[in-house]
Amino acid sequence: MSSSRHLAAVFTAAGSPLEIQDRPTLTPGPNDLISEVKSIALNPVDHMQRETGFHVSLNPAVLGSDIAGIVVASGMSLNVGARVAAFAAAFWIEGIPDYGGMQQRYCLRDARRCSSRQHQLQRSRIAPHVCVHSGMLVWGGASSIDSAAVQSAKAMGYSVHATASAKHHGYLESLGATRVFDCKAAGVEQQI
User: Fold this and answer.
1) Keyword Membrane on this protein (predicted)?
2) For 61-94, how does the pLDDT look when each residue is reduced to its tens digit (9 = 90+)?
3) What would you report as the CA-atom Rg of the chain, rounded to the nearest whole angstrom?
4) CA 175 to CA 177: how far, in whole Å?
């Protein structure tokens, strides 16, 4: 790592705007890794925590539960340079700032809750979606998790069918869905 400090969006009080603050970059413990944050998924719980202070025991806190990035230091077997998607457990650890996802560069992670793109994806691990032969159905494909499932299934060679409201069909096709069905249409199950 080139720096021992980085910036983070910090929560200081319920309902207040996030503040940008300088944070120390820590050394990972035996079950941790440090990832350079490349993207952050905002979830309803992130908004709820910022708005109400729900499940935040420390101030300042760093919120944010899902990130993708590149490993820059690891106490486990994930290689430096590996691309990872990670569950940044800000909600479950009540906002402990070292683990929140809303950080500009470096974010401490429990390496056991990371998935490396260097690992071979296995078709049987994409539950709860339905996989049949060389096709996969993703119900509600426009959500953050399911849009990732569409892309992962496409990358593994599946023919991907997805459901979503009509306004999201073009988006899902751009992610690789072969066919998209209107989840609100009468008889959508028979159409599929």
Assistant:
1) no
2) 888 877 888 888 877 666 888 887 776 666 566 5
3) 19
4) 6
